[in-house]
Each structure stands twice: as C-alpha cells, then as structure tokens.
Write a structure and sequence with these properties.
By secondary structure, the chain is of the alpha/beta class. The chain folds into three domains: 32 residues; 81 residues, no CATH class; 196 residues, Rossmann fold (3-Layer(aba) Sandwich), CATH 3.40.50.410. The protein is 30% helix and 28% strand. The chain has seven helices and 13 strands. The protein starts with a helix and ends with a strand. 37% of the residues are buried.
Length: 320
Amino acid sequence: MKIERMKLLYSLLTVAGMLATIFPAHTEEAAAPAAVSVSMTVTANVAGNKRMPDINQNDVLVKLGKESPHITNWVAARGDRAGLDLFILIDDSLDARIGLQFDDLREFINAQPPTTSIGIGYMRNATVQVVQDFTTNHALAANALRLPTGLPGAYGSPYLSVIDLMKHWPQGDNRREVVMVTDGIDHARRHLGWHRGFTTNPDAETASAVAQKTGKMIHAIYAPGASRFHRNYWIAMNGQMSIARLSDTTGGESFYLGLHSPVSFKPYLDSLQQTLDNQYLLSFSAKPGKKAGLQHVTLRTEVAGVEFSAHDAVWVPAGE
C-alpha cells in the first residue's frame, strides 16, 4: 500500500512539473506583443536615362535593426494608389530674383496628374503662411505663387517652419511630400556657423525625426537668401548641408549648384518628377518594443542597377 502511494505521489509530482513548464511558456507566448504594420514610401532609382525595370515584392529586402521583417505589401504608386499630397514651401527670406524661377515652378505644378494635390506656403517667423491649401486645381495653386518678402521674420528658421507644417498636415492615405525652396540658413541659430566647419543644426535633426515619424519625404532646392548672411561661406555652407542632410535622411532629393542660384530650376524639377513617377508603397510587419520610437531601417534589392531611397528610420508603436 505504501508503495502504491509513493507511485501516486511521484506521478502527481511529474504531472505538476510538466504543467509548470507548459503554462509559463503559453503565458509568455500570450504576452508576446503582436506584430504591427509599418508603411513607408520608397523611390526606385536607376543611373542615367536607363529604363526602370519591373521590381516585384520578392526583389525587396528590408532590415529593421537586426531583424528581417516580413513584407506584407509592395505596390507601385500608380493608378488607384497614385495619390500624392505635395506641398511647395518657399522661404520668405529668399532674394526676390527667385521670381525668375516661377515659370518653371508653374509649369511643374500644372504638369502634375489629377491624383496630386498641391499646397503652397511661405516660411516666416518659424511658421508657415499658407497661401493655397491642398488642391487638385493646379492652375489655382500655380497662381498662388508670390515673390518672397526677403525677410525671415523675428525668429526665422526653415526647420521650425517645416515642423509646423508637418504638425498641421491633414489626415489621409496619400503619399506626403514637401519641396523646400530655401538657403537653409537658420536665422534663429545662425551663430552656429560663426566658427569654421560644419555644425549639425539641432532643429534640422528634429525636423528629420518628425518627418520620419509622420511618414513625410522632404526634397530641397537651394536658393540664396536676400540677407548678407548668405555671403558668409560657413553660414551658407552650413545651411546648404543642413537641408541636404534633411532630404537624405527622409528619402528625398536635394538640388544645388554650389552656393549660387541656378540659371533654371527646370533640370531640378524634371529630376524631381522622375522621382515622383518611380515610387512604391511598402508595408511590413514590425516587432513593437516596450516604448514607441524610431527604428533604423535599410532597404536594398538584387535587381541590377536599382537603388532605393527612403527614410533612414520608421516609427514603430509600442506593444500593448
């Protein structure tokens, strides 16, 4: 009888041990946060005037931190997915000679497809004076262009202005992109360029983070300002490099001809149009962390001659 009781006790202990190993595993599995969907706009680039090859979902490789997330969607931004909100943001501190480029800008605006909404605004006092809300009436948007005042305002910063614009951007599923026409000089922080050498502008870094968090791509066209500061090499160079970095980290294009005004914006705008015409919408599953935040992302493809431009990082929500 005693032996039978001992056998029963051993059996109960064995079952208890098995349950102790099984239930925590299931509890951990249930507690693991579910994957979240992350979306971004990607530009496919080819050298010169070569034909853009077809790029399929299987041709795309994504690296999020150390992980290789599962791609859930890869579709060309065409047809019913061609929607684009494009805001043209002009620095009010620019030299009035920028008006010589307005015919090229108007031609670019009027050439946009019906699926593109255009907004026009001017950067001043660290905010944006919107002269035309998003509209698919491209002629209306083109006619809203005016000459800049040549004054940055009391606290003029193109980076604070674009942040202000992004924070008030209307909700929607379209691609969201900005074209900044500016010298990049932050008049609120211009003392950063007094020493000889490149200095990272903290407001430009913040603008980059906001753009990546909210899914916006920023393109930049350099044009000299009206103030004497653009004649200081280091201030002007810091401004130009800051907008170039802002564009690069957000997947956009930056255009400049040294520190001089180009003869024509048309080559820049033609290149920008090619960028807009070769974009894709990418979605993939991401593992949420304990806190929401930006996670570094890299994209590549094995299709010969093709390179991708996109955000350096994407916003991943926290796990519930």
